[in-house]
Design brief:
By secondary structure, the protein is an all-beta fold. The chain has one domain: TonB-dependent receptor, beta-barrel domain (Maltoporin, Chain A). Helix content is 3%, strand content 66%. The chain has a 29-stranded antiparallel sheet that branches. The chain has a 5-stranded mixed sheet with strand order 1-6-7-4-5. A hairpin with a 2-residue loop joins strand 12 (191-216) and strand 13 (219-239).
């Protein structure tokens, strides 16, 4: 099936695989003592992290594209909606597989690519390790604790990884809202408001990932479980100053939201080695993800907190079952056949109770949803003479989504997709090789995007702060993709690599902004075709005297045909990202390093009437590891030392002018210290 490579010293594995991917192993995941998995992945070629801020989760983006274009998997199964990558500590992860092309086994809902997070597996020997750390950000301390244990006996092995953390992340931002004439700065704006905001964000997370493996002759049975408990409190205070025009309904206001949830994933996998080199694998998985939230919005007029103007309580229950399997067998003549199936059923219930005292209205909305997935696949890998290897596969997948609302009736959508996947590799020499791949992929609409329920803005409904609602007529996006790559190896761990991609997407989903009576509303809609292409460069080299260097660069372009340019790119795609890192073995027992990360911001013409811009990001991170003895280590680190504040804006054409909302966010460095002990 889809094969992967391991970065670092084991570059020989990369040379032998038909389908290239990048694998970040446990050692590299924990090299710099990063607190979250997102902090590690930002250094991977072609990956950018969409910053969350103001309580929003960070988003992993491949080729500069997120929002469903990048498939995120946990142990080979799609993560549930709303999964927060920041809640996953590197200590819980065995490796991360990054696939730039599609995989018939892992799924083809991956127009930009796939990130597959593999949880901790059983270790070959008895071992325990404990870590204690603390981060300091803007005067707030964030402690963390991690523990791992593993052992093995006759016919079995086990491992347990557990983490707990409390993260405090305050930030300061200022919003500038204006309405000016269409023809530019020919006169004073008709509206100008400035709103400084103080954001408080406290997250508490506890996770445990046990794994138990039994071996009996040709049979292996493995149980893998992941439990994540989380709470998050977000508070915002905003104070508005009017420079021109009228104030909003609540110029001085505050809002607070409490989020709580549990994510439980448990998989049971049976493997059997059969005759003539054949193998059989069957996997059953369970998912439970209940969560709830409480939101309140209030006025702070005159510096006095008023009774709540809006109160919302929401409960979401999500439960699912997956059943998958595959059969692999060599056929002779260099052929290896694999066939399999992948099914799943997820049930989602949601209730939302809202009291809006500004309009004296109350809402009690409930819906039930069901997502059923059925996929079958087959693949043939063929080793040829002359250094050639080919892989040809096909995956047929059908997604059926149905939603029943208490007052609005039912919605049903079925999306069958047939995805051929072709990949090939040729070795030009023992040190040089070329890969080429062709695949059909797709992006299915989420359940929330299909529900025509309207979510209203808390204050100041406008073209840049509209209400949102789903679209039951939304169709999947379909894409044809081409991937190519060239690798050249030298020395022990040195390599240079170049890769390129192209995608042609139909039924691309774009926002549609309109005014419904007195309120602005945004809804997703299918709006024709788009194209995307780009390239990535990567280099690694072991230098003399304990120095090692790594660097990468990615450049992306895209164009939406139904939107007039310039800047009519996809989904706020990051046009350029680059990383440079240096590691230094100062002396035995002392290692240090630095990483510089850059992500260029860009203006995007989102639709015919909307535009937005994301500011550039520059980050400098430092780390040092000191081994006090063979079992004890001290870590020191610093992140975001360049302290570059971010500036984002969104604009919309409205009758008589252009409405624009600009946000400046203060960025502070993070200082980190940790103590590690293994035995």
């Amino acid at each position: 099936m889809q094969k992967v490579e391991v970065t670092g010293a084991k570059l020989d594995q990369r040379r032998e695989q038909t389908a290239a991917a990048i694998v970040i192993g446990a050692q590299e995941l924990q090299r710099q003592g990063d607190r979250t998995l997102a902090d590690v992945l930002k250094r991977v070629p072609g990956i950018t992290i969409g910053e969350g801020g103001a309580g929003r989760s960070s988003e992993i983006r491949m080729r500069g594209l997120g929002n469903g274009y990048t498939q995120i998997l946990l142990n080979g199964v799609a993560v549930p909606p709303g999964f927060n990558i920041e809640s996953l500590a590197p200590e819980l992860v065995e490796k991360v597989e990054i696939l730039r092309s599609a995989s018939v086994e892992l799924g083809t809902q991956a127009i930009a690519g796939t990130v597959n997070i593999i949880l901790r597996k059983s270790a070959p020997r008895a071992r325990q390790e404990a870590k204690l750390g603390v981060d300091a950000l803007a005067g707030a301390l964030s402690p963390s604790l991690a523990w791992q244990a593993s052992d093995k006996g006759e016919g079995y092995s086990y491992s347990v990884a557990a983490t707990a953390s409390r993260v405090s992340a305050p930030d300061w931002r200022v919003e500038y809202e204006t309405v000016a004439a269409q023809d530019g700065p020919s006169g004073a704006p008709s509206l100008s408001r400035v709103s400084p905001q103080l954001n408080f964000n406290v997250a508490r997370t506890a996770s445990v990932a046990p794994r138990l493996t039994w071996n009996r002759g040709t049979d292996t049975l493995a149980s893998q479980t992941f439990v994540n408990l989380y709470e998050r409190s977000i508070g915002v205070e905003s104070h508005e100053t009017v420079l021109a025009g009228a104030p909003t309904q609540f110029p001085d206001n505050g809002r607070h939201v409490d989020l709580r949830g549990v994510l439980l994933r448990s998989d049971l996998t049976w493997q059997r080695v059969l005759e003539q080199g054949a193998r059989m694998e069957v996997k059953v998985g369970l998912l439970a993800n209940p969560r709830s939230s409480d939101f309140e919005f209030h006025s702070l007029a005159g510096g006095i907190r008023s009774p709540d103007q809006k109160v919302v309580h929401a409960d979401i229950g999500e439960a699912g079952l997956t059943f998958s399997g595959k059969y692999q067998r060599p056929l002779g003549g260099g052929h290896a056949l694999a066939v399999g199936w992948d099914t799943g059923r997820t049930r989602r219930t949601q209730s939302r109770e809202e009291q809006d005292h500004t309009t004296a209205q109350a809402y009690d909305e409930r819906y039930r949803g069901l997502i059923t997935r059925l996929a079958v696949f087959a693949q043939d890998e063929w080793e040829l003479a002359g250094g050639w290897s080919l892989s040809a596969g096909v995956r047929w997948e059908a997604l059926e989504t149905s939603v029943r609302q208490r007052e609005a009736g039912s919605i049903a959508q079925r999306s069958p997709v047939l995805s051929p996947v072709l990949q090939g590799m040729v070795k030009l020499s023992p040190e040089r090789q070329v890969r080429l791949g062709l695949a059909r992929t797709f992006k299915a609409p989420t359940m929330v995007d299909l529900i025509p329920r309207r979510y209203t803005a808390d204050n100041n409904n406008s073209a840049t702060n509209p209400d949102t609602q789903g679209n039951p007529a939304l169709r999947p996006e379909l894409a044809w993709g081409l991937d190519a790559g060239y690798d050249h190896y030298f020395g022990k761990d040195g390599m240079v690599s170049a890769s390129a991609y192209a995608r042609r997407i139909s039924d691309v989903t774009l926002p549609l902004l309109f005014k419904d009576s007195t309120r602005w509303v945004r809804t997703p809609s299918n709006q024709g075709r788009a194209v995307a292409h780009g390239l990535a460069l990567e280099a690694k080299a072991a230098l003399s005297a304990g120095w090692s260097l790594r660097a990468n660069l990615a450049r992306n372009w895209s164009r939406v045909e139904s939107v007039t340019g310039p800047d009519n790119r996809l989904d706020r795609q990051a046009p350029l990202s680059a990383n440079a890192g240096l590691d230094w073995q100062v002396r035995p027992g002392l290692k240090a390093g630095a990483d510089l990360n850059y992500q260029r911001g860009a203006r995007t013409q989102v639709s015919l009437v909307e535009a937005s811009s994301v500011g550039s990001v520059r980050k400098l991170d430092l780390y040092a590891v000191w081994e006090l003895d063979s079992a004890t280590r001290v870590r020191l680190g610093a992140e975001n030392l360049m302290r570059k504040d971010t500036t984002d804006w969104a604009s919309a054409d409205i009758p008589g002018g252009v409405q624009r909302l600009l946000t400046r966010t203060d960025v502070s460095p993070t200082l980190r210290a940790g103590l590690e002990r293994s035995w």
